[in-house]
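Chapter summary example.
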Amino acid sequence: MIGRVGRAAVRLELATPIQWIAVSPDLRYVAASVTGEVVVLDLRADKLATLAIETSGDTSFQFLDASSLAVGTGAGLAVVHVDDMSYEPL
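The structure predicted for these 90 residues follows.
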């Protein structure tokens, strides 16, 4: 559950446990890594996006800047530009 000042909390019900959570430096995006997928919430726009990407328990996961999310896997490093993802309303 993600609490937000002056707005309803957001509750994610995912099929698998969350492995990592990262928050962008400007607090706009919250990203969660689950097995095989990254879920990104745009808290300002009340939207959600997902991206299929190979992840595991040892995947590293952090924002490089306000809109670039680094995902380090056994296969290498991927940078996800969260501004360019396809979002759906919450």
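To summarize the output: Strands lie at 2-4, 7-10, 20-23, 29-34, 37-42, 47-52, 60-63, 68-73, 76-81, 88-89.
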